[in-house]
UniProtKB/TrEMBL annotation:
Record-annotated SD-repeat containing protein B domain positions: 427-507
Protein's name according to its UniProt entry: Uncharacterized protein
Compartment(s) where it occurs, according to its Swiss-Prot or TrEMBL record: Secreted
A cellular component annotation (GO) from this entry: extracellular region
Alphabetized UniProt keyword annotations: Secreted, Signal
Species name: Nitrosopumilus ureiphilus
Gene3D superfamilies: Carboxypeptidase-like, regulatory domain, Immunoglobulins
Length: 1017
């Protein structure tokens, strides 16, 4: 064993030379937190010896000291004032003595080492500073027996940059105070000793050895404003909430739209910087919401009430409002089945129309799932398919579209899957010499070509990487052990050849369902490609042609379909597409900045035939930067929304332009009033122009307006020019806009007209349906039968849309194949046929059928009976013809409007005559022998029963049941209904009608009594 002995700073009794063979003792001292002088005593049979050690840098040691073998030695420390003994031990020849004992008996040749560790007991003062309303440097004085010490503390973000820590003398009274700088108020001070506050916020104290004292001073900037920040929590749902911050002179509105953060919808407004005063903070609670609770805190301390918040300089108030929906009472339930058996642990997703509600759950052990606490909306419910499975219900991998009304509980939203196992894809890359798209004997195969596989989640066509392989010497490739779903097989490249199969420079797309898909081939021909060139330009005058001085626009994407081949314009706006010979549609996607922030002045897509080795040039696209209409112009249309700041309307509707040219609007013509105003609307895409003189409809306020009938087929951006004839009257102007004079004015603006894709109608009534959810679906991937909700590439960028009273919907879309799905609660969801764009489709009308079928009014049903009976004449039997004519006459009299309030309700005074005519009609029909009229008789009886039942249901209210007199009539009415049904079942139809008439009369007495009571009131 080797000992390294340090002798720095050692002071001890006179050292004795050690003698060979004698045991020795070495004492080591460690002092933590500072240096000091320490006494170590060694007691044995000879008495007690004292060793003095002075630590330097926390360490000291004696030289080895001879001790007597076999003599009990006890080594102890006399701890000095200000230090605490925290550790001690001895070891003999490197082996510690058990229990950290410092008593031992040594043997000849032993080497004993004893170590003592002390920790200095400091008495410290820490000063921290808080400055509200700003930062600064503050002077804190500490007065004690040594005088006054000045400590300067600088704040950053309202708190001390670094804590000020000082050693102070135990037993010496300390007194702290602040010299408050100009512009600041000292609002708080206190000291604490070892975490315990000194009473009465005193800053004078006498510390003891080892005490830790903390003193904090708080200042407020007298010139700092107060602040209020509002936080809104809205639970599971997002919405926009309006707030008001108000004092006696000022109202500050605030609006918060909550968004989902960590499964909680939340948002904030502020901070609002306010002059110190008394304020109130309140929320305007939206419809269908409840304000559960709210509170405000000033620097973390609650303050009340919210209607009387007293704010001082630098106050920082945080107000939190918590709301919940009151209409979140709907539910959607369903089950997950695989091969007919419930399947647990499957993820089910649900989103609402505008994607503000996104929820996820998993099926339980019974395969069931629930979405609870739902607001009225239309929801999309979908599943995450288990591995190697296909969805067999709903068909075509579609989600459920679930319209949910208030409090509705919808069940049966089930998903059924079939386990199909792994799938495979195989194909060949070859030279299709004869262009027949078949791999023929003798045609060259291309080996070593890279084939990349991508798994798709439509409508995304890029997908995620799913595999890579190269073709073998026979040009063949294959992917195995694939999950079900859609895949894209990226086309390879073959130098010197053009892709001919599939046509249109496309990748291959397949849907796998546990099957083996062969012949996913890529054919090439040694035919040079052709080229499409053009320019993207800023069409400053909106005429659809690039004129001198109109610059090209760089970095705009230009695409062709099929194949989805895209490129970007260069710095001059030029682009080039090299494509195999075929027919293509060239277009620019909407979802890029220059296109969405401006509007096309040329056609949105162009069809081009690419010929080998030829360049097709001039396929240009121009955009115009459209200004919003002048602020005093109002565009009035049944349907309007905003796209990039421009009012957007459907061109299939009348549009009124209203212009305020008076002092409260835009004061044209100075203090004079305009003589005339001519509005000229031009459409650059179609080159058509419309103009109309405006009429002054409000002379006092100088309001002018004009209404244009639909511009069909013109659509797209519309340039507005107002030609204002100011006094004196310019002859012939503004009818002839070229005759403008110096005092006259021209004003510009723009709006957009979107071609409506179609209208949603009620199948039963042919009336437009409002409140229907219309979803645009795009064919994705191409060449498959799959359609999914389109996420981009259309204007307006709202999908789905909700129809209004006119039932109309519409999008401008990029080229592709589309379907439209329409859903509304109470109706059967309907899909449109597939449409291909271009050309534009503006008549895709969709008819919704009510879930309960079409309810035909009773009067209309009778008209149908008349028509049916008339079609039977003549029967060939004179007697039967005579009776049929009598029946037709009686039924015709029964539908006279004087007996009816509406098409299903009888007049209370004369309605009984309808039953009389029906009874006579039935009697006549019972005498008809030539044809079978039994179904017609049942129809008549059913209508009469319905008339009586409807009257009874209307009269049978809780109030009428509680009244003795009316309840007696209700009992009679119900009894006659039962008798009528019995007679009808017995085939005694004329008797049945008599009972239905009596039931109706008793119900009318109740209803007439209600009316009399209302008149008395």
């Amino acid at each position: 064993m080797i000992f390294l002995i340090l002798s720095i700073g050692i002071t001890s009794i006179p050292a004795f030379a050690t003698h060979p063979g004698n045991p020795t003792l070495t004492i080591i001292k460690q002092s933590l937190g500072g240096d000091g002088t320490f006494q170590i005593q060694n007691t044995n049979s000879s008495g007690t010896s004292l060793h003095i050690l002075n630590t330097q840098f926390g360490f000291a040691s004696t030289t080895p000291i001879d001790i007597v073998a076999g003599d009990l030695q006890t080594v102890t420390e006399v701890s000095p004032n200000g230090f605490t003994l925290t550790g001690q031990f001895c070891e003999i020849n490197g082996t510690p003595i058990p229990g950290n004992s410092t008593s031992f008996t040594s043997s000849i040749g032993d080497h004993v080492l004893c170590k003592f560790t002390n920790e200095k007991q400091n008495t410290t003062l820490t000063i921290i500073k808080q400055s509200l309303g700003g930062d600064g440097t503050f002077q804190i004085q500490n007065t004690n027996s040594s005088g006054t010490q000045n400590h300067f503390v600088t704040t950053s973000n309202g708190v001390s940059q670094f804590p000020q820590i000082f050693d102070i003398t135990p037993g010496d009274e300390q007194s702290l105070s602040e010299i408050v700088p100009f512009g600041w108020l000292l609002t708080g001070q206190f000291c604490s000793v070892n975490g315990v506050d000194i009473p009465l916020n005193a800053t004078t104290f006498t510390p003891l050895l080892g005490d830790s004292v903390l003193c904090k001073f708080t200042n407020v900037n007298q010139f700092a404003p107060a602040k209020i920040t509002i936080i809104k929590n809205s639970g599971d749902f997002s919405d926009t909430f309006d707030f008001t911050i108000q004092n006696s002179t000022t109202i500050i509105p605030a609006s918060i739209t909550t968004t989902e953060i960590n499964s909680e919808n939340t948002g904030s407004a502020g901070p609002f910087f306010l002059t110190p005063d008394t304020y109130s903070v309140s929320e305007t609670v939206p419809a269908n919401w409840n304000l559960d609770n709210s509170e405000c805190k000033n620097h973390g301390i609650p303050i009340t009430p919210l209607s009387n918040l007293i704010l001082n300089p630098a106050d920082d108030v945080l107000c939190i409002f918590n709301n919940t929906r009151t209409d979140a009472t709907g539910e959607i339930h369903g089950m997950k089945l695989q091969d007919g058996n419930p399947l647990s642990g499957v993820t089910i997703n649900m989103t609402n129309n505008d994607n503000t509600i996104n929820r996820e759950t998993t099926t339980d052990s019974n395969g069931e799932y629930w979405f609870m606490d739902l607001i009225p909306d239309t929801y999309t419910v979908s599943e995450v398919l288990p591995d190697f499975s296909i969805q067999v219900f709903p068909l075509d991998n579609q989600p459920h579209i679930v319209p949910l009304s208030l409090g509705q509980i919808i069940t049966g939203i089930d998903f059924q899957n079939e386990f199909v196992g792994p799938s495979e894809i195989h194909g060949t890359v070859w030279e299709d010499v004869d262009g027949d798209e078949f791999v023929d004997a003798g045609e060259q195969r291309f080996a070593g070509k890279s084939i990349i596989l991508w798994k798709l989640t439509p409508p995304d066509l890029q997908g995620s990487f799913a595999g890579f392989i190269t073709t073998n010497p026979s040009g063949e490739y294959g992917f195995t052990d694939l999950d079900s779903g859609f895949y894209r097989i990226q086309k390879p490249s073959v130098f010197g050849f053009s892709l001919s199969t599939p046509a249109g420079n496309q990748d291959q797309f397949v849907e796998l369902t546990g099957n083996v898909v062969n012949d996913v081939n890529f054919g090439f021909q040694s035919v040079p490609p052709g080229t499409i060139t053009g320019i993207k330009f800023n069409d400053l005058d909106g005429n659809g042609v690039q004129d001198t001085g109109e610059p090209g626009v760089s970095s705009v994407q230009i695409c062709s379909t099929p194949g989805n081949t895209c490129t970007f314009t260069n710095f001059n706006g030029n682009y080039q597409l090299n494509l195999p010979p075929a027919d293509y549609t060239v277009y620019e996607p909407f979802s890029q900045p220059f296109v969405t922030l401006n509007l096309l002045a040329t056609t949105p897509s162009q069809t081009v035939t690419v010929i080998s080795n030829q360049v097709t040039s001039g396929v240009n696209f121009g955009n115009i930067v459209a200004d919003s209409p002048p602020p005093e112009v109002e565009i009035v249309n049944e349907r309007s929304f905003t796209v990039n700041g421009l009012p957007t309307v459907y061109y299939g509707e009348d549009t009124t332009y209203r212009k305020n040219v008076g002092p409260n609007g835009f004061d044209h013509c100075g203090t004079d009033k305009p003589v005339q105003i001519n509005l000229v609307i031009s459409f650059p895409q179609s080159g058509t122009t419309f103009e109309q003189l405006m009429t002054e409809v409000d002379v006092t306020n100088e309001i002018w307006e004009t209404t244009f009938t639909p511009f069909f087929p013109a659509h797209g951006i519309a340039n507005l020019k107002f030609y204002v004839d100011c006094p004196a009257d310019t002859l012939g102007f503004p009818e002839d806009i070229s005759l403008i004079s110096g005092e006259d004015e021209i004003q510009f603006g723009g709006s957009i007209y979107v071609d409506p894709s179609g209208t949603v109608f009620n199948q039963c009534t042919d009336n437009p349906v409002d409140g229907a959810t219309v979803t645009l679906k795009v064919n994705s991937p191409p060449t498959t039968d799959n359609f999914v909700s389109s996420e981009s590439g259309f204007l307006p960028d709202i999908n789905p849309q909700i129809t209004e009273q006119d039932g109309r919907y519409g999008w401008v879309v990029v080229p592709g194949n589309y379907k439209v799905t329409v859903a509304k609660s109470g109706f059967i969801t309907q899909d449109s046929s597939t449409v291909t764009i271009p050309p534009a489709v503006t008549d895709l009308d969709i008819f919704l059928t009510p879930v309960d079928g079409c309810v035909i009014p009773l009067q209309e049903q009778k008209e149908g009976i008349i028509t049916e009976l008339q079609s039977e004449l003549p029967t060939g039997d004179k007697k039967s013809d005579k009776e049929l004519e009598k029946a037709i006459s009686h039924i015709t009299k029964s539908i006279d409007d004087k007996f009816w309030v509406d098409d299903s309700t009888l007049d209370s005074k004369d309605g009984h005559k309808v039953f009389d005519e029906e009874k006579n009609a039935v009697k006549s029909l019972l005498k008809v022998d030539a044809i079978d009229v039994s179904d017609t008789i049942v129809q008549i009886i059913t209508i009469d029963e319905q008339l009586a039942t409807d009257a009874f249901d209307l009269a049978n209210t809780p109030e009428n049941q509680a009244d003795k007199k009316t309840n007696k009539e209700l009992t009679k009415a119900e009894s006659e209904l039962i008798k009528g049904d019995k007679k009808a079942n017995e085939g005694k139809f004329d008797k049945a009608i008599d009972h239905y008439k009596k039931s109706w009369k008793h119900s009318q007495k109740v209803l007439n009594s209600e009316q009399d009571d209302d008149e008395d009131d």
